[in-house]
Each structure stands twice: as structure tokens, then as C-alpha cells.
Amino acid sequence: MMGAASAAVVIPTHIATQRNLVASSAANTNTSISSSLASQAAQGISLMFWGTTCHPANPGSSTTVSPCIYGQTSASITIDVFGDSFAQMLVPALNQIGTTYHVKFVVLSRTGCSAFAAPVANQNDAGCNAWRANAVAYIKSSAPSAVIVDSIIRWPLMPNGTGYTWPAWRNYVAATMSAFPTSILPILLTGSPGATLDPSTCVPLHANKVSLCNTAVSAAYTPFMAQSISAATTAGAAVINLQSLLCSATTCPAVINGMLVHAEAQHLSSTMSAAMGPAIGDALGCVGLLAPTATGGASALRQVASQIGVTESATTCRASGLVTVPSNIR
Fold it and tell me: Apex CA 328: angle with CA 277 and CA 179, to 5°?
């Protein structure tokens, strides 16, 4: 007598939906796009969310931290978001999550100023280091349930132009992720792919076969992402890795479900960021569900999970593989 068939693996609904859209887009090598979408792609970086004066593109030497509030401003659950333009890039997603699931997001960002205190080549931002310290102090004093850290992770170079060793880079990441009291749940959010060809040039040129603008996974990420994830988990931080929400096993499409993925070679477009909201909301709920009951901030994120959907559970979250919660979570 044959044994019963194994039950299908179920993962949170919005994560599964986004992955299916990615798989379909990556598999279709003959996708054409409208002339209006091609014209939109040509606008480049303007397609990214830059917000208001709350996110100054050219902050000069100012060290003032200006909290930018999104989502449900009166919500009892507050999550701070800390980083550079990659934190700003998340705003459309966060605003959608916050208004839907009753969360207030406070974004602390400075264009070109990484959340990681590693000195980098060509950083001509006199106020960056002091601003970063002020932002960390703000987060500590405001006591959110969690802090999401998102900054560019590509090929950071030291001021002398040489690359960081893995131990040195991991130390900088670990220092940031462990800078907050244990009452604040730290989360590294990463996994936005780089594009080999700038979509603002490539997509309008190949509107009849936009797959020519796709990027191989091997070229979309550098080893610094894996090193950063390792450092964050060692430091007791949770990790949300968006890679599987934007790439198949081999390909990162330039267009997903009729939407431009990138504003330019590094940043997500505003439309793609907003479309990612439901899946990122699932992931935040998964952090809460996978974190131990006694962990600071976890109960608030469990509340988020309870508001998302019936497929959200510790089992489905583990099956998704999107979230890592280390045993030493702070």
C-alpha cells in the first residue's frame, strides 16, 4: 500500500504571488512593452521615490535628522527605517504596508550616507558621520518596536581605493546591527538586485524584446551581500532578503508584471516598490512569528502577522525561506 502523498508546501500568500510573477517574467523571453512604458523608463532616476525635503538629495554638511513618517501615523506599532537612498526607495512599499496593517514607519535617511559606518571612497558628504550617529541616537530614544536597516551593498571601497577585507566589512555591519537596545528588534533588509544595463537606456531601445535588458543573478549581486547577511545574523539581527521576490534562480527581469523593476541601475522604481508592499508585509510578519516570544519588538510584529492573512504562520514563514531569524536574535 502506497503512503499518502505529501502535502504541498504552503508559503505566505503575497510572497508566493510575487514569486510567481517573477518566474513568469523571467521565463518569457519575448515580452514587449508599450511605447508609454518605454518612454517612462527613459526618465531614469526620477522614477524612484525621492519624497519631500524630509529626504534631502544634497544635504550638504547638515547633521540634522529629520524623521519622515509614513503609513498610519496614529498606529501603536512603530518601525524605524534607517539608511541611505535604499531606505528611501522602500517608502512606497512601507506606506502601503502601514496604511493596510496599521503600522507607523519613521524613515531616517540621508542620500549617499550608508547606515554602515565603513569609510568609503568618493564619499564627499561632510555631515554623514555625525548624521549617522544622530540617527542612531534618535532611534534609541524613540524606542520603536523594530528598526529596518537598508543601505547599498555592492563593492564598497576604502578611501584609499582598495577593497574591504571580509572581516573588516562584517565588523562594520555587525556594529550597526547591534547598536540598538534589545527592546528594539533589528532587521537587515537587503536583496535588491543591480542591473547590468541601465534600464533607462536599455528598455526604450529594446521595447519589443525587453528580456534583452534582464540581468543574470550572478551579475546582479556581489559577495558583499552574503557577507553582510552573515554579519547581521551573527550580531543577532533578523534578515529579510528580497532576492527571490525580484529574481528567479537565474534571472532578474527588467520588467515584472508590466512594471519597471528599476529606476536606474541600482534603485527600484516607485511602482515596483509599491507592488512589493504585500510581500514585504508578509516578511515583517514572519520576523515576528519566527522570533522568540521574549524578544523585544516581536509581539508587535506578530500583531502585524495576524492582520495579514491565514497563510501566515511559523511553518509557512520557514517554508518561504525569505526571512532569517538567528537563534541569538537580540
Answer: 70
Residue 1 confidence class, pLDDT cut points 50, 70, 90: very low
Taking domain 13-324, whether its CATH number is 3.40.50.1110 is answered by yes
**Is 221 within 8 Å of 162 (Cβ atoms)?**
no
As given in the structure block, the three cell numbers for residue 2 are: 502506497
pLDDT in tens, 128-140: 889 999 999 999 9
The DSSP secondary structure of 26-94, one letter per residue, reads HH-TT----HHHHHHHTTGGGGS---STTS-SS-TT------EEEE-TT-SEEEEEEESHHHHTTHHHH
- Contact criterion met (CB below 8 Å) for 107 and 133: no
Which pTM does this prediction carry?
A: 0.93
Cα angle 102-104-110, degrees, rounded to a multiple of 5: 150
CA dist., res. 281 & res. 190, Å (int): 15
Number of neighbours of residue 3 by Cβ within 10 angstroms: 5
Q: d(Cα 41, Cα 206) in Å, to the nearest integer? A: 11
Would the pLDDT of 118 be above 90?
A: no
d(CA 257, CA 89): 19
Q: Residues 222, 192: contact at Cβ < 8 Å? A: no
Phi, psi of 41 (to 5 degrees): -60, -35
Evaluate whether 325 touches 232 at the Cβ level (below 8 Å). Answer: no
Where does the pLDDT of residue 8 fall: very low under 50, low under 70, confident under 90, or very high at 90 and above? low
Bridge partners, 239 (sequence order): 188, 324
Q: CA 38 to CA 145: how far, in whole Å?
A: 41
**251 vs 236: CA distance, rounded Å:** 31
Q: Cα separation of 295 and 140, whole Å? A: 16
Q: Give residue limits of the domains in the chain.
A: 13-324
Contacts of 50 (CB under 8 A, 6+ apart): 57, 88
Single-letter amino acid, residue 205: L
Residues 175 and 215 sit within 8 Å (Cβ to Cβ):
no
How far is Cα 95 from Cα 103, in angstroms, rounded to an integer?
Answer: 9
Residue positions counted in the chain:
330
CA 231 to chain centroid, in Å, comes to: 17
